[in-house]
Write a structure and sequence with these properties.
Layout (H helix, E strand, L loop, with lengths): L2 E4 L7 H11 L2 E3 L10 E4 L8 H4 L4 E6 L7 E2 L2 H7 L4 E8 L9 E8 L6 H22 L14 E2 L19 H5 L8 E5 L2 E5 L6
Parallel strand pairs: 1-2, 1-3, 3-4, 5-8
Antiparallel strand pairs: 4-6, 6-7, 9-10
């Protein structure tokens, strides 16, 4: 089986995707435009829109989204669900098409969180679970049937560093889930007090 992986450079998932490609003996690409004639293409943490005419050059173009599609389309679905207080996060493996997270579904599987993981551990669990779902697909392929998405869809907007702002009038307990999804390096938690900005970094004591 001819397999390829595509992942955007300078992203948190890039190195893990590269290692996974080596494990599978798959070809690895940073740009989908170069991917042609593959039976299975895993598109993992790739941040460019792929036009349908390019998708048609490969048999299966597979994306993993950390929500129970069609709910939670859009950006950072796992982090939004953590903010909502959820510990059971459904991951969906589906076929890419011209719509936004709208393709036919092959697999759905639930990641169970403890509820106290911080950013790095959350990312590691997200990566491991995503790659496990890719392996599940390969084990079941080609005896795997897809299904159309059904139900009410919802969308999450793109997050930015300003979304890491804490409310000093709320307790840490109330905002712990926000602290969990803040990256100490890239988008740390912060708050304003008396006209000054204060940055707050969080670590688990080992």
């Amino acid at each position: 089986m001819k397999i390829a992986l595509v992942s955007s450079p300078n992203q948190w998932f890039y190195e893990k995707a590269l290692e996974f490609a080596k494990k599978l003996g798959a070809d690895f690409f940073e740009a989908y435009e170069k991917v042609r004639g593959y039976e299975v293409v895993f598109i993992l943490s790739y941040h460019k829109i792929i036009p349908p005419n390019l998708l048609s050059l490969n048999q299966h173009n597979l994306i993993i989204h950390a929500s129970k599609l069609p709910q939670g389309k859009g950006w950072s679905p796992m982090f939004y669900q953590i903010l909502e207080g959820k510990n059971n996060i459904v991951f969906t493996l589906f076929e890419a098409d011209k719509g936004v997270d709208s393709g036919d579904i092959y697999l759905q599987k639930t990641l169970k969180l403890r509820g106290d993981e911080l950013y790095e551990e959350l990312r590691n669990k997200q990566a491991f679970f995503s790659l496990e779902l890719c392996e599940d697909f390969l084990k079941l392929y080609p005896n795997l049937k897809s299904k159309k998405q059904s139900g009410v869809e919802s969308f999450y907007p793109k997050r930015s560093p300003k979304d890491s702002e804490l409310n000093i009038d709320k307790s840490l307990k109330e905002q712990f889930n926000l602290l969990r999804i803040c990256s100490n390096e890239d988008f740390p938690a912060f708050f304003y007090h008396k006209g000054k900005k204060f940055v707050l970094k969080i670590y688990e004591e080992i």
